[in-house]
Write a structure and sequence with these properties.
- By secondary structure, this protein is mainly alpha-helical.
- It has 4 helices and no strands.
- The radius of gyration is 16 Å and the shape is flat.
- Bound molecules: stearoyl-coenzyme A.
- Stearoyl-coenzyme A binds next to α1, α2 and α4.
Length: 106
Amino acid sequence: MAESEDSCHRRFQAAVDVIQNLPKNGAYRPSYEVMLRFYGLYKQAVCGPCRVSRPGFWDPVGRYKWDAWSCLGEMSSSAAMTAYVEEMKKVAQEVIDSMPMNEKTA
Ligand code: ST9
């Protein structure tokens, strides 16, 4: 594996581990949109382009998940890994920016 590809893979794995180890309920509540973005990129990175058929009417959550994955088309696995890491940095920054600033730091 080329070095840049290897570091891309390691950064992705670290981001995946962080997200899998977040508590289910915490001060931060990701929106469905955010969760679906992570989900789509994760599937694309790990499984490649979506080749399964779209779930039926009785599985609306499955359809949303399928749509989030399928809309990434033929995006490469390494591009999906990079986008996943970038997304995590963006969301982490948003969480930091939304923290109250009136607490004493000293
Ligand atoms: C809080 C603390 O308040 C402070 C917050 C700091 C914030 C830091 C900012 C960092 C970014 C955070 C973004 C959160 C985004 C959440 C994304 C969720 C998708 N990524 O193995 P299964 C798929 S924290 C994407 O059965 P687990 C997997 O393929 C409070 N998708 O379930 C499968 O789908 P399918 C907020 C992933 O192990 C499905 O998920 N806390 C990932 O029980 C289920 O997989 C949270 O937001 C992945 N890394 O759950 C908790 N791994 O069957 C976020 C697996 O179709 N974490 N999948 O293949 C979770 O919700 C879960 O750990 C989980 C895995 C869903 C990622």
